[in-house]
Amino acid sequence: MPRPNRPQRPKSEYEQKLIDLRRVARVVAGGRRFTFRAALVIGNLKGDVGFGLGKAADTSQSIEKALRDAKKHMISVPLTENGSIPHEVSAKYASARVILKPSRVGKEKGLVAGGAPRVVLALAGVKNASAKILSHGKNKINNARATMEAIRSLKTKK
């Protein structure tokens, strides 16, 4: 039940998913100073997706900063009519390696992916594809950025 004197916040056009929230420490003269780092993926489920990082003294401020950063770094995904990607693509970011494969026509199995690539592809609106993290790294931020690089290198016929 909405409160009568509280203004309603407008609903965002983007879905968002927090993939990482960490407390990070910086050593200063008096001891340790703690801040929070948030990694966020946003997408409209229709082909636009963005990834952002934010750091602040408070968790909600770091999430807001990550949201602003993700909106700044939005890219569009070329989708096929069956909700897949047009062709196979792989990418590397730092130590993370990711490969994305489209689903074969008539063999739709849904989105077969794990970790950060699953979140990025799902929020981009990809319904039928598979993704595999080829590196042994568990770094979610690098895996998400490698997936974004792979999506950025997708091409379509004009």
From TrEMBL:
<dbReference type="InterPro" id="IPR014721">
    <property type="entry name" value="Ribsml_uS5_D2-typ_fold_subgr"/>
</dbReference>
<dbReference type="GO" id="GO:0006412">
    <property type="term" value="P:translation"/>
</dbReference>
<dbReference type="GO" id="GO:0003735">
    <property type="term" value="F:structural constituent of ribosome"/>
</dbReference>
<dbReference type="InterPro" id="IPR013810">
    <property type="entry name" value="Ribosomal_uS5_N"/>
</dbReference>
<dbReference type="Pfam" id="PF03719">
    <property type="entry name" value="Ribosomal_S5_C"/>
</dbReference>
<dbReference type="Pfam" id="PF00333">
    <property type="entry name" value="Ribosomal_S5"/>
</dbReference>
<keyword id="KW-0689">Ribosomal protein</keyword>
<dbReference type="InterPro" id="IPR005324">
    <property type="entry name" value="Ribosomal_uS5_C"/>
</dbReference>
<protein>
    <recommendedName>
        <fullName>Small ribosomal subunit protein uS5</fullName>
    </recommendedName>
</protein>
<dbReference type="GO" id="GO:0005737">
    <property type="term" value="C:cytoplasm"/>
</dbReference>
<dbReference type="InterPro" id="IPR020568">
    <property type="entry name" value="Ribosomal_Su5_D2-typ_SF"/>
</dbReference>
<dbReference type="GO" id="GO:1990904">
    <property type="term" value="C:ribonucleoprotein complex"/>
</dbReference>
<dbReference type="GO" id="GO:0005840">
    <property type="term" value="C:ribosome"/>
</dbReference>
<comment type="similarity">
    <text>Belongs to the universal ribosomal protein uS5 family.</text>
</comment>
<dbReference type="InterPro" id="IPR000851">
    <property type="entry name" value="Ribosomal_uS5"/>
</dbReference>
<keyword id="KW-0687">Ribonucleoprotein</keyword>
<feature type="domain" description="S5 DRBM">
    <location>
        <begin position="14"/>
        <end position="77"/>
    </location>
</feature>
<dbReference type="GO" id="GO:0003723">
    <property type="term" value="F:RNA binding"/>
</dbReference>
